[in-house]
Amino acid sequence: MSTPERQLRLVQVACLLFVAVCIFVRHLVKRETQSAITPTQWLVIVAAIWAAVSGFTGQRRIVSARTRSQRASRRSTPFSRWRAGHLMRLWTATIVALWALVLHEIGGPSRLVDTFFAVGLLLLLVWRPGASPTPTPP
Question: pTM for the whole thing?
């Protein structure tokens, strides 16, 4: 495994540790759940779903940005787009778990909170960096 893939694996481990801390805090602090989902909780639910979906769609958009744009940029290389796309995917998977913690803190349904934690963990665990394009010298 080369250095860029190893660096992304370290980011993945840091994200997994962050999610583990969120789950620990969730079980440490018991909150009463409300019988009906409030508008604020709906916003958090939509944000968590958006984060889960946007990690995959956003990564594809970032990686293919060069093919859609005819303008050449010195800062946008295949390698930098590859790295940014993977960082976005890792971060959005972590954000799903963070939204789960927010939902727990505002009294959201426990099953939904646990589902979002599971989705965040699953997205982080199934992520693979793949082979990186060769970095171009500046």
Answer: 0.81
